[in-house]
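Co-fold these.
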Amino acid sequence: MSADIRKLAVFIEEIHSEMGQAVSPPTRKAAAVAVIRNPFAGRYVEDLTALMDIGAELGGLLGQKCVEALGIAPSEAESYGKAAMVGEDGELEHAAAILHPTMGKPLREAVEKGAALVPSSKKRGGPGQVLDIPLGHKEAAYVRSHFDGMEVWLNDSPRPSEIMVAVAVTDSGRPLARVGGLKANEIEGRDGLR
Amino acid sequence: MPEPKIRKFFTTVEEIMHEGGPVAGKPLKRGAVLAVIENPFAGAYHEEISSFMKDLEPLGLEMAKRLIAALGGDKGDIQGYGKGAIVGQSGELEHGALWHVPGGYAMREALGDAKAIVPSTKKVGGPGTRLDVPVTHINASYVRSHFDAMEVGIPDAPRANEIVLALVMTTGSRIHARVGGLKAEDIEGQDGLR
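Predicted complex below.
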């Protein structure tokens, strides 16, 4: 089953200064959101395979949308994250089916590699509710400068029988990052952690 | 007055395929570009503020160009527009009114020949405040299918001494427009109204 997408939205944030300090080059984050029909809204269904298939489809689509919005080559992506908000007639497990089994592989293809776990969050909610997408470095989860998040919301989503699925990609870490820890240029790159 | 100090840009594009009815052959796009700038008048009453309008013109033009690019790059695709401002708590509503002239100028300049008044709204608010930016047809305000709006906002803006400036453009009518009235193909095109 392919996703019945009601709408797609892309958000791009570009920070040029923070606390009076210039941020140069600007840090940039993008999020892409798909609002889809939840095929299992309003009933309990044991087998969630259809949503897993949708997860694979959206991992590629939304990852590419983010990279395109940033205007970068896929390999220039630095951090990523994913999240889903299920409308009130669905279950949290529907978000899990989209996010976890199949979304990672096509998303990693869209950002060229990505050894680290894709950080994620999920919730159930209604129109206008905020969805916070966690962010982490795509090659090494412990890179401290890239721990971040991005908020998305759409005033008309999710309706009761919809799911909002979001992916975020950046080409940079936090502006003015200075709390130490593993740096991006020190990644060993063996385990996705360091 | 010096040129505006920009902290960040925020761009959103929605692509709407349907809203429960027939899937559109061409999705409707709604886009917004927001700039967060320092409010040079924050914290005190200034009688003379109007010269800042001129200073905002280059920024307005850059925002309009960014928005057209985000919507696909062809100014011929743009059919609706609107603008707005959110003034941080140390400013006054009148500071938001500074955006009327440069915001409108910028979109007309970037679009070429738009005839209709640019609908607008403004408010004082804090970080995360959302603004419903009204949208009407670029050449004839009475085109009923193009009366629309887009909700915009940024989680961390405006801070007390900032202003969020917004431009919105759309590429068509509401996705399932069917309440009659003046149609886009019936525009006379003389007065910006019909």
